[in-house]
Amino acid sequence: MLRWETGLALVVVVIGIAGASVSSQFFTSNNFFNLGLSNGEIAIMTLPMTLIVISGEIDLSVASTLGMSSALLGYLWGRHWPMIGIFVLIAVVGLAAGAINGLLVTRLGLPSLAVTIGTLALYRGIATILLGPNTISNFPAAYTNLGVNAVPFTGNDITYSTAIFIVLAIVFGVILHATPFGRSIFAMGASSEAAQFAGIRVKRIKTILFMVSGLVCALAGVLWTFRLNTAVQDNGLGLELDVVAIVLLAGVSIFGGKGSIVGIVLGVLAFAGIQNALFLTNFNQEAAGIVTGGLLLLSVFGRNAASFSQRLRARLPAGRPRRGRPGTAAGLPPASTPP
Amino acid sequence: MSTILVPQSERPPAAAGTGARKLTERAFRVRESGIVVVLVVFVAVTTAVQHRFLNTTNIQFILTNTTVFALLALGETMVVISRNYDLSVGSVLGLSAYLSASLFGQHHGMPIVVVFLAGLGIGLACGMLNGIMVAAGRVPSLVVTLATLYIFRGIDILIVGGKEVVANSLPGSFLNIGKATVLGIPDLAIAIAVVIAIGAYYLRSFRSGRELYAMGSNPDAARLAGIPVGRRVFVAFAVSGAIAGVAGVLWAAQYGTIDSTAGTGYELQVVSAVVVGGVAIFGGSGSAVGAALGALLLNTISSALYVLGISPFWDQSIWGFLLILAITLDQLISVRLTAALRLKGGRRG
After folding, report:
1. Do A301 and B143 touch (CB under 8 A)?
2. Distance (Å, rounded) from C-alpha A269 to C-alpha A246?
3. A151-A156-A160 Cα angle (round to 5)
4. Per-residue pLDDT tens for A239-293?
5. Cα dihedral: B227, B73, B330, B226 (round 10)
6. Distance of alpha carbon A168 from its chain centroid, rounded?
7. Which of A126, A128, A300 lies closest to B143 in CB terms?
8. Which of B140, B260, B313 sits opposite A129 (nearest CB)?
9. Which parts of chain B register pLDDT below 50?
10. A129 contact B CB<8A
11. Contact B268 A120 (CB under 8 A)
């Protein structure tokens, strides 16, 4: 698995060099700040998505949960609820949204792809019902500053969303790679049945993962709303594709069982770096999708090329002289001498 | 010469094979009739509350609106049945709509047939690209078509820039395609119904069509059974792309104004229509007619909500809810079906 991350790190370096050569502004702290601003929420959403994909499922409702939480924020604020109360309710709603996904997938045994396409529509619909055509833009500066200012004491580089991403990445990284809980997620992705028989509570863990995703996306919705100082029903429309793209780019296998948080961080950097470089060169922002799409294709073909070359190497004839132990080809045990 | 009597248990199980097939056919018909029932109930309830709903203009409106989605649903069905996904249909539609419609502006007096062929060609090219990557590269189609969704849309944006094709640049005969009717039924709806019937017949009665089901049901077994999986997948994507291309031209004919956002988000609506229509999300079962009915149902509901005065903001929630309901239903049916098929197989001996 380390191979993928190394390749990706190289890609990030290349993007960095290309970005710097294309614009002198690329490596300025101001630019890094803007990078954090425009991609912070997406980056945060990739973390629970990674765990879900590794466990063998997928959650396409992330952007709609973001939108629903944003709409809820606007709706309740418009009704003069206290902000703390709003935060609590949004957290509960996020957990509930995730729980619905989780229960439909684990209790009813429905495929997560189909379920989350349904909840994608359902939650976006709820956002639309809440706000209608309205836009709420009168959030107090104390909160909108959270969206656009730098975290104090860190200089002017790091947005709150970037800071949250860093903290969450460490937390998720530790959980995924250094705890039995994390290992069981890999096991589930590799084989749900085997994991079940090994005593892993697959259904419970998957439900928890979906609930965490709901909660984190609700948080992202709050950050998004404050950053733009706007709550409108189509906030975050279509972001789920960006999130899935980053997760796949990071080397997480769509079939489950493989992936790493380090890869995610690199993936986020690659994705953000490209968007940023294109932005600095006045490339049509909306057409930046071509690059994201191209990267996605490279990531899957690259993975296939790696396994393809491995298969090729294993087929090499045993007789070809190799350094080290003579008579052994890749993967084959040494030939035994007849008595 | 002695006659050799074949013992009862060794006689070839002639009845079981057809029995199983009849059972699955019945399940398909039940699923399709289920959608028709829901549709009828919906229309009945809406008309009871609001008589306007069932007048000719409204029906024509619904039918015309559904044509693009029904067409897209046909192409998507072929792909999903084989356990693949084509998420790029929205982008292909947008690209085809703009490029083909702009032909009118560039060459005066361009025959409409040529424009349709251009749309078909654009869609076919995109579809073949998808097909090659999925078939030869052995890459999951979800990822490939997600990437091409981005890429085709990006190309569309680059080509279109800030421009748009406006209705006045299009000949009247083109814009009237959606409006011509015969006996009150829009010509377009009839044409699309014919196309869907052809597609349904192909899937049911042609060997290559049935092989798509086999591939979706168990890809490895299909490969081992000698089905040319790569070729079939390639053709399925090529056809899906071609259909999306034609749908783009029809879209242009209906809306008249095309910019770079044409078709955005359609892929998810199409997948929903297809799943509501009974096509299993993991492939292996479903019918083109069901998918078209699914598209019709979703469109009818949108129109019904509008007529009932329910805010269109409820649209998305309802189709999301319906989708979840549909897949829950399908899960229950497939569990029962599998159990029943196992029983039938067991009776052999």
Report:
1. no
2. 9
3. 30
4. 888 898 899 889 898 888 889 999 999 999 988 888 888 777 777 777 778 887 8
5. 0
6. 12
7. A300
8. B313
9. 1, 11, 13-16, 349
10. yes
11. yes
Q: Does B265 touch chain A (CB under 8 A)?
A: yes
Q: Specify which residues B165 forms β-bridges with.
A: B258
Half-sphere exposure of B47 toward its Cβ, with a 13 Å CA cutoff?
12
How far is A284 from chain B, CA to nearest CA, in Å? Answer: 7
Residue A125 lies in a domain: yes
In a domain, B149, yes or no: yes
CATH number of the domain that A236 lies in?
A: 1.10.3470
Q: Is residue A324 part of a domain?
A: no
- Give the residue numbers spanning the domain of A70: 2-305
For the cut 80, the answer to whether the pLDDT of residue A63 exceeds it is yes
Instruction: Find the closest chain A residue to B134 by CA distance.
Output: A301
B317 and A CB contact within 8 Å: yes
Q: Does B340 reach chain A within 8 Å, measured CB to CB?
A: no
Whether B70 is in a domain gets the answer yes
In one-letter notation, the amino acid at residue A166 is: I
Instruction: Answer whether A301 touches B (CB < 8 Å).
Output: yes
| CATH label of the domain that carries residue B267 | 1.10.3470
CA distance A143 to A136: 14
pTM score: 0.84
> What gap in Å lies between CA A112 and CA B281, rounded to an integer?
10
Name the residue range of residue B298's domain.
49-330
Residues 6+ away with beta carbon under 8 Å from B3? none
ipTM: 0.79
Nearest Cα residue to B274 out of B216, B194, B339, B211? B216
Please count the structural domains in chain A. 1
- Of the candidates A121, A129, A237, which has its C-beta nearest B272's C-beta? A121
Q: CA A138, A144, A147, A151: dihedral to nearest 10 degrees?
A: 180
Instruction: Confirm if B319 and B268 have CB atoms less than 8 A apart.
Output: no
Amino acid code (one letter) for B300:
T
Asked if residue B227 is part of any domain, the answer here is yes
**C-alpha B219: how far from chain center:** 21
Residue B235 to residue B212: CA distance in whole angstroms: 10
Assess B146–A contact: CB distance below 8 Å, yes or no: yes
